[in-house]
Design the sequence.
């Protein structure tokens, strides 16, 4: 068993945990982040892609609204590469509460959330697929933000700043000594090594798992879990983020993300932080509400569903089942004050848009405990992108189709997402042990219309040519099963045809039942 | 007026058209697309499950296409198929005890009944050690991946080799078909064999991706063996799969030579007639509708993937030509099982038919006297787990033609 020590241990490598670690690095604190999965495997990666303007919460949650508005401007400064500045539209459809837009507009003005009313005809000129019956329309500063890219940039910045980020490391136990958390026992899921990590202070930034982690120190925290499902449609139907101008409800948001449009979200109470299923009724509801905003939606092919689990602070009087009504603001619990357990701080809730501010708030508590007086610098320090080139489609296209074409053009492994073989090889080498799903988050492998029916085989083949130790099936069984899971709730029409195509190729043409079954069983 | 109008140009439709035309019927094939042969291994799967079909067929539910058709009809259909392909100089061979165990591109073993010569030579019973060859720049076949599992399965894999393909088009997205066109040219074959021969020195047998020609495939394959002085065998690749396309091409040519008229790229809409008969189909082509009158209509439009069945989010499943009743579950949430490897209920959806392959209504009586259906459009089989897709296609096409021509 290896022993190591650090000043600050952050459990959870989502936007909150990485944000805290980056903030700590900039203040000269030694920090280690421990993440059980890959970057973006939890709630931060399972989101709709929206950089909030704040307008959505001006009435229901004014604090969040103001924070979103401020952080929206900050992220545009420090991480512009992750943002596509689409702008936002808030539209009131026939049947929506008639008094809402004026109330909402007043609230926006009071909270300094910039909005502007435009003519419905102008909105339809910009976005011709919108419902022509819209009654009032407003522009906002909403945008699309790629959270995978943001997490990569944070990780790169932390590592460049002397911090450590341990991916695929599982927290087994918090070490509690005389009412004080003094570190943690951790297992590397890469090679099985056990590590004792001593820390002056531990931050629990595990999102929906925060309750389970606190329990390891004998502490109960009241968290309600709300699952939000999203549907991506296989076409970029709009170029602007579109919100419904009415009280927030299921399925009233559309975000253009790369080549697709994401419709969301629902809010369903769940018990298990790993419960990321999507049920048929959620899909029906999202598509039905979406069609009120874009009437031609039923003619387009839904591509994929996913769900993220939001951790929400539940005050004692609140109804745990009504997660939509719970505040979106974040909560910081200093367990020394609250529970008499020193050395542990929990933070949860909030929005991806406000991750930096949440980190700044959490670091106030951390600095007090560690006697650090250095100021927060994250709002003015741009994140570093490192060598990684981010996968905007124009960027991909420019590399695949350069002005002066090389003699041997790069082989395209995934046609849907334009992934050249060289990129795939580099990504495969960076992931040990091999998980094609991690490569997917890195490159968008298998995220297009064919949902990996073709590139899964190619990636498995290239893994066998590139790496020395590879599962017998090159990892494709688990990868395809994960793809299957995300398209299953959309199984009708062309998507169902795609699903049958996947089965015909792998089970009839390649007879892979036993091979994939064996690897899945391991 | 045509005596038999076939809707669909996959294995089922083309085979039925050939059978009927050879018996003197006037036949028209109307097809929206090209069928799914390009997705297939190009072999004839009949039954891979245990016990063998001869013992099982009497115990199958009476809605299973094999139970409806009977074993004798199956044998007759397979014999007719083998005769057609042999005459087209693309002979299919059966394995000992009726099953061939063929290596796949993933290194698994595909159990099938009949395979064309170039694939059949990969049969597991052949203990001659072999080298697996990949082709430079070809992204749809990876010998290291296949070799890893084949070795474990006990096949005598001696190693892998990468072979350059002089003259291959340099493309970002090269397909098996691009290479196959190259092998169709005699000069290319000569040049490629000259480059390959020294690289294969010492090999006793070579397995390689199935790209050795699309047109005169048997001749190309035999010529390459002779030029290299080695036994070869082919392994089907990721689609487009050349062996499937060869079979499609042969059936299409045989049909045309037998006088079949093929109308492609058009959707067909069924036309009911007086009483319990159909009159034919209307197709939309080049800005106008055209009515094709027929003595009998055979639907060979395939299942969900083929486009014979259309599914909607409200749980409906529609047969696309005559809107016939489809055996299915009305609750969409039950169509698909959670695991990709599970049996999938939606793949059993389809038409119920009588022994003459005439679609039945929900009351169990035939819907039309002169309307027939065959192939993957039929309900009642688990084609992937049974390994029965092509066998069902051939025998149900055979039975329908028998019923039409009497």
Sequence:
């Amino acid at each position: 068993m290896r022993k190591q020590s650090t000043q600050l241990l952050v459990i959870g490598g989502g936007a909150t945990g990485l944000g805290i670690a980056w903030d700590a690095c900039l203040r000269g604190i030694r920090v280690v982040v421990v993440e059980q999965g890959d970057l973006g495997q939890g709630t931060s990666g399972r989101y709709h892609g929206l950089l909030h303007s704040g307008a959505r919460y001006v009435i229901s949650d004014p604090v969040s609204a103001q924070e979103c508005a401020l952080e929206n401007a900050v992220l545009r400064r420090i991480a512009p590469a992750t943002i596509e500045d689409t702008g936002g539209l808030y539209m009131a459809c026939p049947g929506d509460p008639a008094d809402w837009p004026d109330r909402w507009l007043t609230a926006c003005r009071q909270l300094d959330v910039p909005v502007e009313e435009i003519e419905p005809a102008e909105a339809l000129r910009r976005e011709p697929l919108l419902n022509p019956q819209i009654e009032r329309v407003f522009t906002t500063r909403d945008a699309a933000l790629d959270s995978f890219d943001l997490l990569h940039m944070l990780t790169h910045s932390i590592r460049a700043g002397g911090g450590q980020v341990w991916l695929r490391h599982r927290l087994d136990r918090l070490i509690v000594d005389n009412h004080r958390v003094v570190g943690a026992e951790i297992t590397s899921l890469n090679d099985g090594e056990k590590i004792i990590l001593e820390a002056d202070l531990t931050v629990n930034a595990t999102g929906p798992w925060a309750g389970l982690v606190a329990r390891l120190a004998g502490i109960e925290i009241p968290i309600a879990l709300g699952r939000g499902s999203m549907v991506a449609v296989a076409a970029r139907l709009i170029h602007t983020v579109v919100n419904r101008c009415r009280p927030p409800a299921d399925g009233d948001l559309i975000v253009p993300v790369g080549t697709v449009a994401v419709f969301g979200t629902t809010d369903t109470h769940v018990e298990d932080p790993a419960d990321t299923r999507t049920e048929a009724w959620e899909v029906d509801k999202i598509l039905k509400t979406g069609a009120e905003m874009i009437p031609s939606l039923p003619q387009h092919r839904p591509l994929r569903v996913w769900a993220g689990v939001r951790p929400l602070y539940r005050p004692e009087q609140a109804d745990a089942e009504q997660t939509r009504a719970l505040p979106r603001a974040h909560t910081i619990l200093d367990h020394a004050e609250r529970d008499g357990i020193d050395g542990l701080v929990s933070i949860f809730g909030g929005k991806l848009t406000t991750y930096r501010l949440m980190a700044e708030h959490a670091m106030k508590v951390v600095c007090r405990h560690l006697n650090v007086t250095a100021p927060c610098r994250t709002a003015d320090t741009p994140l570093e992108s490192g060598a990684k080139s981010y996968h905007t489609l124009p960027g991909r296209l420019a590399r695949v189709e350069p002005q002066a074409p090389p003699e041997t053009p790069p082989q395209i492994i995934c046609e849907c997402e334009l992934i050249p073989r060289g990129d795939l090889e580099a990504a495969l080498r960076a992931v040990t042990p091999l998980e094609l799903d991690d490569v997917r988050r890195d490159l968008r492998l298998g995220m297009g219309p064919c949902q990996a029916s073709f590139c899964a085989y190619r990636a498995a083949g290239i893994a066998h040519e590139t790496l020395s130790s590879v599962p017998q099936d090159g990892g494709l069984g688990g990868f395809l099963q994960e793809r299957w899971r995300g398209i299953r709730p959309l199984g009708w029409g062309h998507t169902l045809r795609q699903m049958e195509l996947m089965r015909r190729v792998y089970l009839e043409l390649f007879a892979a039942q036993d091979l994939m079954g064996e690897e899945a069983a391991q | 007026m045509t005596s038999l109008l076939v809707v669909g140009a996959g294995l089922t439709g083309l085979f039925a058209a050939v059978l009927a035309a050879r018996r003197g019927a006037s036949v028209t094939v109307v097809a929206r697309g090209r069928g799914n042969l390009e997705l297939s291994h190009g072999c004839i799967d009949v039954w891979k499950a245990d016990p063998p079909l001869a013992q099982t067929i009497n115990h199958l539910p009476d809605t299973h296409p094999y139970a409806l058709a009977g074993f004798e009809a199956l044998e007759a259909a397979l014999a007719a198929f083998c005769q057609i392909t042999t005459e087209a100089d693309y002979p299919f061979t059966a394995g000992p005890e009726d099953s061939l165990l063929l290596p796949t591109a993933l290194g698994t073993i595909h159990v099938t009944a009949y395979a064309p010569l170039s694939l059949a030579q990969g049969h597991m019973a052949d203990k001659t050690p072999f080298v697996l060859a990949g082709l430079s720049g070809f992204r749809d076949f990876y010998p290291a991946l296949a070799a890893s599992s084949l070795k474990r399965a006990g096949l005598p894999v001696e190693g892998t080799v990468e072979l350059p393909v002089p003259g291959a088009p340099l493309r970002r997205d090269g397909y098996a078909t691009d290479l196959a066109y190259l092998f169709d040219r005699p000069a290319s074959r000569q040049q490629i064999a000259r480059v390959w021969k020294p690289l294969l020195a010492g090999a006793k047998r070579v397995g390689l991706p199935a790209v050795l020609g699309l047109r005169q495939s048997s001749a190309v394959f035999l010529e390459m063996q002779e030029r290299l002085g080695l036994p070869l065998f082919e392994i089907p690749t990721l689609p487009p799969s050349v062996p499937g396309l060869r079979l499609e091409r042969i059936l299409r040519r045989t049909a045309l030579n037998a006088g079949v008229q093929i109308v492609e790229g058009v959707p067909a809409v069924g036309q009911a007639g007086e009483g319990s008969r159909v009159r034919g189909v209307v197709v939309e082509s080049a800005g106008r509708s055209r009515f094709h009158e027929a003595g009998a209509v055979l639907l060979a439009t395939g299942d969900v993937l083929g486009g014979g069945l259309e599914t909607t989010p409200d749980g409906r499943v529609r047969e696309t030509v005559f809107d016939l009743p489809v055996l299915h579950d009305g609750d969409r949430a039950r169509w698909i099982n959670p695991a990709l490897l599970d049996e999938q209920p939606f793949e059993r959806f389809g038409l119920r038919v009588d022994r003459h392959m005439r679609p039945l209504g929900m009351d169990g009586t035939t819907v039309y006297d002169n309307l027939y259906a065959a192939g993957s459009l039929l309900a009642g089989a688990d084609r992937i787990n049974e390994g029965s897709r092509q066998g069902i296609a051939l025998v149900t096409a055979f039975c329908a033609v028998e019923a039409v021509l009497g």
Q: What stands out?
A: DSSP finds twelve helices and 17 strands in chain B.
